[in-house]
Amino acid sequence: MDFETFSERRLKYVTGLLIRAVVCAVFGAVFALNAYLAPPDVRPHFLCAILILIGLASLNAPLWLIGKWAAFPLRHFYGHWLVDLLAVTAVLHVLGGVELPYGSVGYMIMILTSAVFLSERASFVVAGASAVCFDGLVAAEYFSIVPRYVYIWAHDYSGTAQLFIVLASDVFFFLFAYLAGSLAEQLKRA
Questions:
Q1: What SS3 state is found at 190?
Q2: What is the mean pLDDT of the chain?
Q3: For residue range 14-23, what is the model confidence (pLDDT) as tens digits?
Q4: DSSP string over 111-155
Q5: 115 near 123, Cβ under 8 Å?
Q6: CA-to-CA distance for 179 and 182, rounded, in angstroms?
Q7: For 110-123, what is the mean pLDDT?
């Protein structure tokens, strides 16, 4: 159970929301720079990704109000991370899906924060959800359920390469969850 005081929970809650806002701002700036440097035909993809990040960051106000009303329960983070995972998946999709270089790394921030703010178990839950989201996106693109935007990065991975990227990402998600969760638990005990 949660034995933290109200002020400790509130601090973690606010810090979690602040992390979301900062990450959205940083990636929004990176995407804006890429849009400026990119050919005109791919700029709409970066604009769409920026709009998704703006929408995600704008959720902070209602999430804070809901948290305040409920005395800032840290279990709310599971809902926050679900929304974040879906938003990251949408951003990855509009920026090329599996073709986006290092795209799966976008899930790592949530795996790390879940370990720090809640527990090692939470980091494994988020790692599993990250794998489901990323794998689902790659499968949906591979089977033409959603369109693929291979022209953004001027390359097209083969099915074998996509499978390798998916499997390597999944292993990395769980390895990172284990490392971040173990370190967070050791720090909490110390």
A1: coil
A2: 93
A3: 999 999 999 9
A4: HHHHHHHT-HHHHHHHHHHHHHHHHHHHHHHHTTSS---GGGTT-
A5: yes
A6: 5
A7: 91
